Amino acid sequence: MYPFLEAEGILSWHPDRLARNAVDAGQIIHLLDTGRLLDLKFPRLDFQNNPNGKFMLQINFATSKNYVDNLAVNTKRGLIAKARRKYYPGTAPLGYRNSRINGVKMIAFNKKWAPVVVKLYKKYATGKYNLKDLSQYLFQLGYQTRPTKLWPGGKPVTTDYLKFFVLQNPFYYGVFKYSGEYYQGKHQPLVSKLLYDKVQTVLNKKCWGLNRSKTLGKRKYRWFGFSNLIKCGECGYHVTTTSKTKKYKNGNNHTFTYFHCSKQGTKNNQNTNRCSQSFIPESLAISDLFKICDDVSLPESSGNWLLDELSKDELQSQTQLDQIRAKLNKRQDEINRQLNILLNLFLDTTIEREEYLKKKYDLISQRKTIEEQLLNLAEFQNDNIEKAKNFVRLTVQAGKISKQYLKIAENEGDQKTRIEPKESANSCLEPPLTKPIVTELADWLKKAELNLFLKDRKVYHIKQKQWAALSRRPTVRNLVARTGIEPVSDVFQTPAVTTLATLPFF
To answer: Burial of 435 by CB count in 10 Å (0-12 exposed, 13-18 middle, 19+ buried)?
Structure first.
């Protein structure tokens, strides 16, 4: 507030015109303290720039804030009371208008748009029209977006507006929602409950966001299993997918699928330099992802050995904690016994009062330290070992995924790099043979939270500490086409301990 204040004073009708919250009030007081404001003038109040004057100004600011807070509470209470009287306390939706009948504010039909809303419901209930058709229908009739400070308006209303504020609005059959609660309204409904339910049924069939449990294969748009997992290596925005169908002269069709940068920076006008990254075939991108998965994987035998070692460490750590707890309890009991002996010596006048108080303070201080140590032990949990176990399980799962992919590649022969089939009933899904493994790979990548990037038609991984530690291990297998996993070393013993010790969990 007032970053480049040129004036040395402010003329105002009342202090509540300057500030009605603590932030504005504090800024004005700060400007007065620092000398950037020298004086304030009010018609009915006398202000002097001294401690007493600023104190009275703060009282006026506090009174103004109290007035605003009470006004908000009273206004909300009045609106809820109006809703309980079955009157909608808000702006009437499309097809209605706010009016006053016999001095009472009510909501009545809009003679121009009420029949249009009924037609919208009837059209959509047939299932032959989509939300864009209804938007264009309204636009042709003259219903357009209103101009604002940022947008000129005069365009068709959005499909979200039609879905949430018209077709899903219970107001049109006589019920309205206010402040999280539903009320039966006194306004006349435009449509019947039966027609409203039919529209909701059509919406559930067409709008996948309202029914996420439906089979993904029935979607009319491509479902991207690697959504929000890969970023563009040039502009940093997420990678998406696109399918293109090529029609041949002999009548055959072939669908090609690609990964590419979403280029949202250019769309949102946040980046004047357009991203120059090109498309990459889906088969090559997924092949790179499987190689990354193989690079950060461990054999199942090595992973089980590490899990056993971590379990031993966890058991040993718990044993050590129990031993420390027992020692602290024993020491606490010893201090309590010494306090009793010290009290008896003082009562028998064996020691002086000053010596008694000094010894008692020392013992009580030691007992308090032990109590805090016991409390810290009770709250202590070795989360690092559990995190390390989860990390090892991820690496073992990665090894299983890589082995399964290599087996599929070996069976497919020369077609090992092709993930999509030549022809499929639904081009938005992977083929039956590879879909489970690709889905499993996508789920694993979400759990692993790798830093994946796509640049120059190649997917690569910027390794974090824990994943970089795996690259320093001895190589246990190579990804060899059509030959499965080629073992290089059969043992994974001492090097695994060194690698595990370098992880950030320890």
So the answer is: middle
